[in-house]
Amino acid sequence: MTSLYDEVQAAPGEGVPTRRVTIKVNGEDRTVDVEPRLLLAHLLRQGLKLTGTHTGCDTTNCGACTILFEGRPIKSCTMLAVQADGHSIETVEGLASASELHPIQEGFKEEHGLHCGFCTPGMMLAAKALLDKNDNPTEDEVRWALSGNLCRCTGYQNIVKSVLWAAEKMRAESK
Amino acid sequence: MALDEIKIGGLGASRRRVEDNRFIRGKGNYVDDIVLSGMLHMEILRSPVAHARIKSIDVSKAYDIPGVRLVLTGEMMAARNLAWMPTLSYDTQAVLATDKVRFQGQEVAAVIADDPYIAKDACQAIVVEYEQLPVIVNPFQAMESGSEVIRDDKENQPGNKVFDWEIGDKAATDKAFAEADVISKMELHYPRSHPSPMETCGSIADFNRATGKLTVYMTSQAPHIVRAAVAMVAELPEHMIRIVSPDLGGGFGNKVPIYPGYVISILASILTERPVKWIEDKTGNLISTGFGRDVYLQGEMALRKDGKMLGMRMRTISDHGAFYADAQPSKFKIGLMHSTFACYDIPAAHLESVGYYTNKAPGGVAYRCSFRVTEAMFFQERMVHAAANDLGMDQAEFRRMNLVKDDMFPYRTAFGFLTDSGQYGKCLDIGMKAIGYDTYKAEQEEARKRGKLLGIGISTMTEPLGAGNSREYDILGIKMFDSAELRVHMSGKAILRTGAMNQGQGHQTTWAQIVAHELGIPADDVTVEEGDTDTAPFGMGTYASRSTPVAGAAVAMVARKIRAKARKIAAHLLEVSEEDIEWELGRFYVRSNKERGVTIQDCALAAYSNMPDGMEPGLENNAYYDPPNLTWPFAAYFVKVEVDAETGVWDVLKVVAVDDCGVRINPMVVEGQIMGGLTEAYAMASMQYQTYDDEGNCIGSNYMDYLLPTAWETPGFELHEVVTPCPHHPIGAKGVGECATVAGPAAFVNAVVDALGHLGVRNIDMPMMPNRVYEALTTGKDISGMPPVKMGD
Q1: Are residues B254 and B290 in contact, defined by beta-carbon separation less than 8 angstroms?
Q2: Cβ contact (<8 Å) for B66 and A155?
Q3: Which of A32, B66, B484, B557 has the smallest number of CB atoms closer than 10 Å to its CB?
């Protein structure tokens, strides 16, 4: 898209204002020139080719676009890319290392916490924000932490179980 | 030795899902993730009003915006004979409006630009002049004499009526009512609901002028039907059309119909000779695409005073929106509404259905529902609840008395369906025990003393899943079979392709389990592919819980064909005649000497390297499966609620689901489907509905107004299982994906109505929001979601 010009072929149109931003994405600094109105979700998806962040509703309700912004879960469909300048963010692509899945990823597979997979990246990141603060949450705490993320397939019960599975594994690993 | 079926991921294994490996890494491949070289972006301008004549459209200012490549209007579509398209219910639907707009959100123009932001800007620059017309937002307005005719584009259109249809034996039903001791009545509205998958609809059309080939990546639950329809509408040769459904972010029926956006993107690609991507926004999805329900139901039941059901009659008035675009394949105008009461032994029944056009979005059968069985079963279980109360009988015992007994199968219903198997009483017993039915009445009395209102709701039903046999089901004349193609490589690994289309059901995992069961090839050794019409065999897609009943059967049948050929190869390898060969999972052996055998993998290698003289090399085949009947799963759901008498807020204390969907291929996946369905039932019962104001403005046009339950509100579920194999399905399976959405809502409503029953409340229409429940409990009156007009006579 012409709204960002770093990693795509098109040059900025005449008179289109751009801003240079540097964002640490999954531990790596990325510098891009963007139109000020470009949404962070779109920068991630189109500009940086990180398509694991999904856009579901455009109104901050569904949470499919949830990422971690300085460790806190935020909805990237209603944040401008320029607002992330100088900040550190984490997307689903940053969860697993080259050789190993994150326990949350394992938990979602083990406990059948996903069907169509569209809400899953956002769910996992919301869960990570919780477990990074509290590695032994109650079921209610998990449900509350995920209440900004909608799922239409699973009925949530297995998502909750997935997060509790991950919490248990993370506790065991930290011992 | 025979293999351990569970270890190789065969039938009954809760095999972890293959597709999860990409989804948990954020490496799914949804349509919006696909980027083609030189791709343009399309945005649709939608009508802000519900009913208006288009006086003029001025697109000149849109072209002033740099980066705009093309603006399409209805006039330009009409010049190419594409302004209208056929619907799956033999009506027509506007692609881009030419004469009038008929609902808010209807497609009026489309901009194709270098990026989606520019396309959105340019839509705002298009000036459309509308002359507003009277708006009709419910069928009662539509049927008034002298009301504005919405479909004035159609010749011989009788007012706003879509159809008038009936089924059943009217005389026998009248007789049953004449002989009844008690007649019980029920009248309700099943509100409009939008399936609202997380992912909206979208497409990328890529027409290659040099080869003449059109490739469309799109969100379709039925890609082959799209190919057939595009061939008809766009008059392109079928072999030059390739439809690819990538990963779908949910469907629930919303992605069965063919939408204007797809068609416009195809024409845009042909005109620009570039790939054109269209990704619908959430509002566009909610206000213009396939919905479910919006039916007014009224009926009555003839009863003997001991509780025996003698007959039932029912009338429905359905709201189809501006175009009759029900994506349903049956020969019955109101879908499978007449499957109502199929689990009860009722001698006589009659149904009358009338459908109307309104100035609302078209559709009607989408949403996790086998073509209106959701309304049918909701009415059934609300009616049964009321009838038990009218008779002064216990809810469970009234059901038990009238449910079809195990020894009555095959059972022909009064409407002509043939149910074939089930253990209804056993399911009822398991549910009653799990919910604590024995002690409940005392508990309810005791709670009332403390000012708490407890209620238990029961819902039992069997529903027809797996459309369907070719006598009664087709889409655009194409019979409702499904298909599978299996190719076993020389190392014994295999690739399976089917005509179904996964959208979260886990086909990549579960189809391989059927192959493992039939051939003993470990499920991990079987790749499953769907959704690409150039490679998958022709199939009718996934909706109406038909994948396992139809495509799943085809998978079993093609594997059996492979096994039959492998048996000949085994005889050759073992140097005995075929009659002397026995099969156990994964292995043929000589009957007289079990030690002497060859594995299926040995046979696969021999099929390419050491086949018998005269045998065609290779080990692959296909199967097309036309089911002899629908499958009939049974569900018994129990919901226990507590209503706060001060506020009308109700909490779910317990949900028990007993499902008999026959043999379970992957119990984990089946349970996932049931929990998902229960949640959608809870959603519709509690908060989720699509409504319109008097001017036809769609109120639920975004997730701030269209409420969906989160993890916080959604209750937990306790699941139980009964297995009665389907007698005609090759592996004994029945459909299941929709059972909980179909039977669930009545269990929730029955529970709340039960809690308020002592106040004289007989019905609260969904959604049972606290204000409705509060009004019911303070007035003791029924709460109706109906407009202030009475039904029928």
Answers
A1: yes
A2: no
A3: B66
